Amino acid sequence: GTVYGGSMITYNVDTSIGQSGSPVYRNSVTEGRRCYGIHTHADDSFTNSGKLITTEVYNAITTAIANASS
Fold this sequence. Notes:
Helix content: 10-25%
Mean pLDDT: 86
Structural class: alpha+beta
Strand order of the largest sheet: 1-2-5-4-3
Number of helices: 1
Order of helices and strands: EEEEEH
Low-confidence stretches: none
Distance between the termini: 36 Å
């Protein structure tokens, strides 16, 4: 994918209605499966985009999970 402005990532993956919130990941022989983003947008040109998981986003996700568990 391509990162724009440090907060969004674009990728060419076929998606359907209702897949927003799905992980955007890449399989690597050396690193395994790594999640890089959260799918948020699709358009008719087969280019999709999502929120890049930055340190700030990761911390917000882990805090929300911790708070939901307590």
